[in-house]
Amino acid sequence: MKLYASLASPYTRKVRIVLAEKHIDCDLEVVDVAPVDNPVNQHNPLGKVPTLVLDDGTALYDSRVIVEFLDNASPASRLIPESNRERVAVRRWEALADGVTDAGLLVRYESLRPKSRQSADWVAKQLAKVRRGLARLDADLGTEDWCHGDRYTLADIALGCCLGWLDFRRPGGLDWRAEYPHLVRHYDRLMERPEFAETAPRT
User: Which of 49, 54, 82, 149 qualifies as a FRET site for 173, CA 20 to 30 Å off?
Assistant: First the structure.
């Protein structure tokens, strides 16, 4: 298998951590998807990373689809529970963490536009989403060791990738560490895990 990736992408990081947890070997090809014509287009019509190309040439895209495939590809270290209610609970954490990241990315993309074309109202709207999402995640986590239940799951991975990207890019100057103590504690614990430390976002 081959993973088309960006080392700065929080969604690529999520897939790389799941690969490590599942002990699945996979080639990594770092690509630049900024150009209209880029190497990912032939596998993913959206031209986005992460894109996973399987041994038979089938391409999987969207990190949520990829991690579900990987979790079912090996029985080792199951990250998504099998029972419906627990599975939905874990995927709900993932959806909110990804949504916070999506809003943060929109803030960053807006900051890269020419100053005269940037919208302060748009940035404020997206940052409000980020703060509401982080407040919910912080409250739901509380003093628990893990996002869901009594063990490490995809929920923790998705949350960790979100927080790591916010640390890395600080969209809109956001200092989430000053506002959400439960999330700070949890992310710092996650960074003690080798798969988190080794995949920390970078350019």
Answer: 49
